[in-house]
Write a structure and sequence with these properties.
This protein is 53% helix and 13% strand. The protein has 318 residues and is an alpha/beta fold. It has 2 domains: 41-253, Rossmann fold, CATH 3.40.50.300; 269-317, no CATH class. The chain has a 7-stranded parallel β-sheet with strand order 3-2-4-1-5-6-7, sandwiched between helices. α2 (12-24) packs antiparallel against α6, α4 (56-69) packs across α10 and α6 packs parallel to α7. The termini are far apart. Bound molecules: guanosine-5'-triphosphate and magnesium ion. The site of magnesium ion has 5 residues, from α4 and α5.
């Protein structure tokens, strides 16, 4: 059996090996990813994003259990657990998701590295594709924070859960500032804490403001309160996800197409950026131009990054 056949048959070891190679950005992954691509597109991808410690992994664990009750298989991808805020999160996630370890219907992996030159979004998309090709029905992707990468990742999920907790006024402001666009469902986790209802009210106001600004969507983001640790509100969250899914698959509004287009575009751009950068750096190296030397010229103010990049591109794109 070829590696491709093994992965499509759901072989855990073959899949794990490829995912490890994606994480390490080994060049031999590309022909495999190419062959796997036609086998993707069946999984339902759910992104969870939010600040460190709000309870994303605990929610993922609960949702995985809920989807398993439906007989669906689940892939879990925890992205960027090496962020300075959440050191040791991989270990934490292992503990939180322990009860799934013996279940062959759940496949858990984390993506640890941001490559030398970024590429987190690309690796994440690649890993989602592999889990999709291996036949997982549901893929839960956990990303920390609200950076550009996370927004990109969230953009390529069918349903995006923005997770927050009570009493984080700043957090709500951050949501307001930038990521309002991406939430299909807002989760106020740790609802056992004081101020949960207030947070829900604040979110509701923001959503109304946001909706008034954009006309391209008929989806009104849902707000769900949860106590992930105890499993409270998980059924509501599950139902909210199903509602959003039904909305997407309702042909009339065409939102599914727009999500799939966003994902295709994001993959295209990420791969293009990555490959172009690699090609250019490779040729620069072959010509004896080192990044080190160029950086030193910039650092010593002998030139500036704009001029150098223009010079390089002029030469390379001829
Ligand atoms: N009080 C309370 N604590 C919770 C709840 N859900 C999760 N926690 C706790 O919050 C802490 C962080 O939970 P995680 O699930 O690791 O949070 P996370 O968002 O995945 O964290 P990072 O991956 O490090 O960003 C853990 O100690 C959980 O037990 C909840 O509903 N109520
Ligand atoms: Mg986590």
């Amino acid at each position: 059996m070829s590696i491709i056949d093994q992965i499509i048959a759901g072989d855990v070891r073959a899949t794990a090996r490829l995912l490890r190679d994606i994480d390490d950005q080994v060049p031999s992954i590309y022909p495999l990813l190419k062959e796997l691509y036609p086998h993707t597109g069946k999984a339902y991808v759910i992104g969870l994003t939010g600040s460190p410690g709000v309870g994303k992994s605990t929610l993922v664990d609960q949702l995985a259990t809920r989807f398993r009750q439906e007989g669906l298989t689940v892939g879990i991808l925890a992205v960027d657990p090496t962020s300075p805020f959440s050191g040791g999160a991989i270990l934490g996630d292992r503990i939180r998701m322990q009860r799934h370890f013996l279940d062959p219907g759940v496949f858990i992996r984390s993506l640890a590295t941001r490559g030398h030159f970024g590429g987190l979004t690309r690796s994440t998309n690649d890993m989602i594709n592999v889990m999709d090709a291996m036949g997982k029905d549901i893929i839960l992707v956990e990303t920390v924070g609200v950076g550009q990468d996370e927004v990109e990742v969230a953009n390529s999920a069918h349903t995006t859960l923005l997770v927050t907790i009570p009493g984080m006024g700043d957090e709500v402001q951050a949501i307001k500032a930038g990521i309002m666009e991406i939430g299909s469902i807002f989760v106020v986790n740790k609802a056992d804490r004081e101020g949960s209802r207030k947070t829900v009210r604040e979110l509701r106001n923001l959503i109304e403001l946001g909706l008034r600004r954009k006309e391209d969507t008929t989806w009104e983001p849902l707000i769900v309160q949860t106590e992930a640790l105890k499993g409270v509100g998980i059924e509501d969250l599950y139902q909210a996800i199903m509602k959003h899914r039904a909305y997407l698959f309702d042909n009339e509004n065409g939102q599914l197409d727009s999500i799939l287009m966003k994902r295709a575009r994001s993959q295209l751009i990420e791969i293009l950026r990555d490959e172009a950068l690699k090609a250019i750096l490779g040729r620069m190296e072959a010509q004896g131009m080192s990044l080190e030397d160029l950086s030193r010229r910039i650092r010593n103010k002998e030139s500036d990054p704009y001029t150098i990049v223009h010079e390089v591109l002029e030469r390379e794109l001829k």
